[in-house]
Hints:
This protein has 172 residues and is of the alpha/beta class. The protein is built from 7 helices and 8 strands. It has a single domain (2-171), classed as Flavodoxin domain (Rossmann fold, 3-Layer(aba) Sandwich).
Amino acid sequence: MITVINATNREGNLSQIFSRHIQLELNRMEHISHYYTLEGLPRDFAFAELYGKRSPEFMEIIDKIIVPSEKVVFVVPEYNGSYAGILKMFLEAISPKIWNHKKAAVVGIASGRGGNLIGIDQLVTVLNYLQVNVMPQRLPISRIEDLLIDGEIKDETTLKLISQFVDRFVKF
């Protein structure tokens, strides 16, 4: 199974549009995929789930989404020149051995010009530490508001790049 993780818990975020589109591409290629957004984390996650304490809700996320996933696509919006702190906490709250030897792809999302290149590089460093096999190609997507019309990606070049990226990841 391939899981697409929308790596923010901010309500109304635009990265969910890109995350959902990636999942649609996977479904179009007839791959079993799952979508998960960090908006779905338990409300007290930041203080209750770290360092070995687990709520039944968080254990369900680990057992039903993370453990069975062979591959994970992280869609990572830019926060203060990096990635969201909730993603770092999410990664730390799950035992490293669960992440070991999974495969991952990283997509950066930003309103600015860089496509969150710094943030996705920092995330790849963490994933490498967790012994995740990260696809060498990353997909930085810049100026995301300019690519959307009525909540959908309308830019043909971006749609083509996403499709090619997903195809490469499926073969990775």
